[in-house]
Amino acid sequence: MEAMDARVWTFFGAIGQSHDPVYLMLSHTLLTALIVALVAFFVTRNLRTIPGGMQNVLEWFVEGTHKLGADIMGEERARKYVPLIGTLGLFIFVSNMIGIIPGFESPTANINITMVMALMVFLYYNYEGIRANGFIHYFGHFMGPVKVLAPLMFPIEIISHLSRIISLSFRLFGNVKGDDMFLLVMLLLVPWFLPLPAFFMLFFFGLLQTFIFMILTYVYLGGAVMIEEENH
User: Fold this and answer.
1) What is the pLDDT of residues 9-53, one digit of tens each?
2) Is the pLDDT of residue 164 over 50?
3) Of 222, 229, 230, 231, which is closest to residue 129 (Cα–Cα)?
4) What is the full DSSP assignment across the chain?
5) Which of 68, 88, 165, 207 would you label with 191, given CA atoms 20 to 30 Å apart?
6) CA separation for the pair 36, 97 (Å, rounded)
7) Predicted local confidence at residue 230, as pLDDT
8) Which of 52, 125, 120, 73 shows the shortest CA–CA distance to 92?
């Protein structure tokens, strides 16, 4: 175990003289949050009518996030959730990209981080569903359209919703962790300039996992607040 720890080198581990997993997780999570906050601050402090540079990139990202949700729940509802989905997307994307840089670890390669995000999404979409439809009507939807099957359908629906926490968290964690391990093996086996194709591939995978988490969050929110439309 000590031999493996010695091979996994990080800048924060060297600075803190520690390979404690909690310390490394917190330090890289704070770094990710700081990068996202700084990008948002410097882009929004001097907004221009004709965007350029990072403002253009972020406006494209916000517009794309809105269109992604509009296809699922309509433009008005999607606009309400753009801040949440956009923030999640930025955090996950930056976190995934940090892991590609040698000497850093992806916070999303830690199950504790992905589990917290999945729990947050789970609690929030249920809260929105209750607020939009009322407590009784929202959970009454879990019983299915046929009342006689309600004792069977209700526990199935509960288990189905709880499984979304596992699905969201483990999908993101497993893919990012696998990418990090793949990159580590590549860097150990071949010279530094040869894994360049792998860096581009890992960039694409990191972007894909960000997109999947965002669209699933929209789907869960849409299913919670659009019960009447779903019934029709």
Assistant:
1) 677 777 766 677 888 889 999 999 999 999 988 888 877 777 777
2) yes
3) 222
4) -HHHHHH---HHHHHHT---HHHHHHHHHHHHHHHHHHHHHHHHTT--SS--THHHHHHHHHHHHHHHHHHHH-HHHHHHHHHHHHHHHHHHHHHHHHTTSTT---GGGSHHHHHHHHHHHHHHHHHHHHHHH-HHHHHHGGG-S-GGGHHHHHHHHHHHHHHHHHHHHHHHHHHHHHHHHHHHHHHHHS-TTTTHHHHHHHHHHHHHHHHHHHHHHHHHHHHHH-HHHHH-
5) 207
6) 12
7) 57
8) 120
pTM of the model: 0.86
Q: What is the pLDDT of the chain when averaged over all its residues? A: 85
Distance CA 94, CA 33 (A): 9
